[in-house]
Amino acid sequence: MRGVRCTPLVLACLLASSIWAQSGVPATATLPGQLPGTAHGTLPGTAHGTLPGTQPGAPLAQAGVRVPDLVERHCGGCHTSSESDGEDVDGDFDISVLFDRQVAKDSDYVAQLTLVVQRLRARTMPPPDEEQPSAVDRRELAALLSQLAPVQPGDRVATVRRLTRRQYEHTVRDLFGIAWHANDLLPKDSPAHGFDGQGDVQNMSPLLFEKYHDAAAEVAAAVFADARAAQVLPDGKPLATTLPPLLERAFRRPVTSDEVRERVADAAALRKAGLTEQQVRHAALRSVLISPSFLMRAEFGAHDAPAKLSAHELAVRLSYMLTSSTPDGELRKVADSGALLDPEILAAQARRLSRAHDGRRLADDFVAQWLGLGEVLTATADFRRYKQIWNRQLRPSFLQEALHYFAAMVRQDRSVLELLDSDYTFVNPVLASHYGLPKVEKGFHRVKLPDSRRGGVLGMGVMLMTSSFPLRTSPVKRGKWILDKLLDSPPPPPPPDAGELPKDDKPVGKLTLRQRLEKHRESSRCAGCHATMDALGFALENYDVVGRWRDELHGQAIDTVATLPDGTELRGPVELKKELLARADDFVRAMAKNLLVFGVGREIGLADEPELQRIVAATRAGGDRFSVLLTAIVSSPLFRMRDPAAKSENAKAIGGQEREQR
Amino acid sequence: MTVGMIGRRAFLRGAGVTFALPWLESLMVHLPREHRQPPVRMAIMVTPNGMLPSAWHPTKPTRKEDPDAKMSGWQPSFTLEPLAARNRQVSILTGLANRQSFEGDGHYAKVAPLLTGKKIRRTGGRDLLNGISFDQVAAKAIGHKTLLPSLELGCDPIYPVEDMGYSSVYGGHISWSAVDRPMLKEIVPANVFDRMFRRSAAATDPARQSVLDAVRRDAKRLSARLGARDRNKLDEYEESVRSLERRLEAVAKEQAANGAPVLQENQRPESGVPRDYRTHMSLMLDLITMAFRIDATRIATFLTGNEVSGRNFSFIEGCAGNFHSFSHHEGKPEKQEPYRRINRWHVAQFASLLDRLEAVEEGEGTLLDHSMLVMAAAMSDGNRHSPHNLPVLLAGGACGDAAAGHILRSRKDTPLCRLWLTMLHRMGIEAKSFGDATNPLF
Questions:
Q1: Do A213 and B206 count as a contact with CB atoms less than 8 A apart?
Q2: Is the pLDDT assigned to residue A4 strictly greater than 60?
Q3: Of A401, A453, A480, B224, whose CB has the highest number of CB atoms within 10 Å?
């Protein structure tokens, strides 16, 4: 069976995050007998994921490379250069090459290393029939391997970011006190690593700049049409005195006297050219709104230590992460005084801002993106079989439940593990009736749940519906959702010709959907990933397409019993939640990692793993409370440093070097 | 069909075409006056998820079957049926491929380099790497002659997902102005319209230059302090400022000479993305026609759907479901049927673009006579993501005899870039090579 667990495509795919579930592709099972003869490894173009030892001419570890005992013990049994039976492709992979300094210079080394760590974390390695490392050993193994990632100065510097559509709207609102909506004037932002606002994929183009130009004209018109908002540049006061505070707020940093002087001179020139005072002020405001200093969030680092963020840059990171907007008055004050550089003050501001706007901005932006909550608004179910869907309030209510739940968790500083399980949720009249709970008044209310079926995101309609198809649930999608979002162990996408299951859950022939899926797992090339994915998903089979509880389907009792590859038996959602709580470290890590990607604006990779682990440890030690997690994150060099790779003593030199590149 | 969608609006019928917008007639008066000899235009329409090969390839009648066949004319296949009447005006190109897309899994690795001929870097975000697409090579050379150097259109906003480790940016952009700079495409018809016709306010604003000068100073100041990667982003910004500046200048000049176009409110498409995809498509094709007609641009690319599109084509009989899912047909007839019908619908859209262009008289002929039109997909068989023998159609009088109803067979995996090189030449751009092509295709 060694060939089974080590099919090359499983490896090939592990690097990639998946597009399948989101794009609405039905489950990817193929029934035996319908399998095309092609083995994954021979499909064109799948070679990128194979490990070094499997490639012709790939380097072998030099003699004398030292492999840590723990790695040797758990991986060395199969993954040595001598162990090769010709059938098991990945058995040819020699783990010691990862410890070879020569190999580490290869361009695909990091990708290979990432693959190995991912398999380890996803618990697909070591294979289930081999001795399993203890939780501590597994973490240690991951740490040992992560440390091998080469770190170059500059690699972990986030690229300059541009305000997202949402951030632009909130910023305008918070700067001027007017509600301006971008509607379809500004486009949807390109995301990366699950979130928008990532500088690497934010391009300016002539078309986009033109849109900002139009938006600025609209915003300026709205500002001057509103007596209170117009006070940013009031009539009768010279621009020389009114511009500096506006520029400082709009640019989110102190401005130089040159910046002010030039704009005042521009205004004078326009006046001289015969423009009215109103036109001049209008132009001045527009020039602020399309300035790169407003649209973009550049980070230069502190004046004396470019690798560290300045107080103002910290304030900007903090406020956009937690409120999707520009720093408020209090935050500006501690940034101006420099007090924000004090970790305790930074943490206190973080806690304050996370609760601002009732925690909703963080929920609406971060959580909605992390868990893909917005998808529920366009999810569909069969209108004949699931009549509840006729209620137009159902899907928006699903979304609101999750947002209320998260916002309350932040506001009340509860354990983040309550996302996995709790004895309460938030319902409005529509949801109370849908979930079979006692009636509630209009609006959303926190209600105590009568049993442990619901509670936590896995019992919410938003998750259950987005992971279903119109005519049936999808254990595969649900399992994948859990692995991907909650445990940060996304399974690889299926090969293009993997095939799919029926669209309906009505039994076709004698086989139920579950039996078909089980048969499919007998196929070696699918078993590796589906073993875990399907088991997690089956445990949620008590919830139908629209998230209602069910005990039977088409006259047959629902079978929720499933066994994870490590032998753990899951019987339904309650045990699934227990299993996930047992993996709380992984969950906290996933949440921390996502919040960092969102807040810092770059991929969090292997090199960040040690810091990530420190954040996890601190959070766990602090009872998993949200404020503890947030404090650990904002105290981490990953958040506070512009370049976490730089050691503080030579930070200046490295910052300088980075600037000289290209 | 579109009448219902656009409500009370009048619409124009000409040469059997239904326009969703009534503007053509009224805007004829705004013809640019300087050129007697109509310029060459080109439009490239790209559809997602490949085309079912077994339903795509047409047959060539033997002379025995059709003595008139001579050098041109072909028997339409299922998918090409909407072009049956144009089998002497549209050529089918076979054997073409973008060799740089052979490696790399998934859809995005195929579509992003379709017009660039380069191999894209596999990345979820950092250090995007593609090439410059040939339409942008053309835009850099001749774009200054028109209001818009080029027009990038689409129907889908960016998708939120990577594909096999390739950034979503790759899946939603075919036009690239630099190796790391995709051209944002416009998906809202009203916005395209505004860009062409509603520039008067911005152009006549007396503070226009002052505002742009101020932000250019800001950009330079920032740029001087930034590292290389960030400076690159500021370069993009500055380029965009320059681009708008040139554009507003041109509009101002045009308006000074000819006055601002007189538009009635009902000529503008409704705001927002149309709910019905057919209306959306129809408006975009109108806009391409319009842009060419008034010489707002000579270069247009149109990505009808982002790659991996799961759009539900339930308006076509038997096609309710997920497009991408149908494209992975596994050889099953029940999936191949909707797949090929969706493909055919796309071909019908291409046909209607030709109809639209033909309905506009220009000089001695029609707009179609002065255009080069290409329809292509980045994969042949979507089931296997095959990058070989890409489905490519060529039409328009500006292609010369090559587009006169031939099946132009090339040897297996002939660089698609040879076609792009040919088109550059026909646009009057002297390029020795493009991508992996050093010889034009014809």
A1: no
A2: no
A3: A480
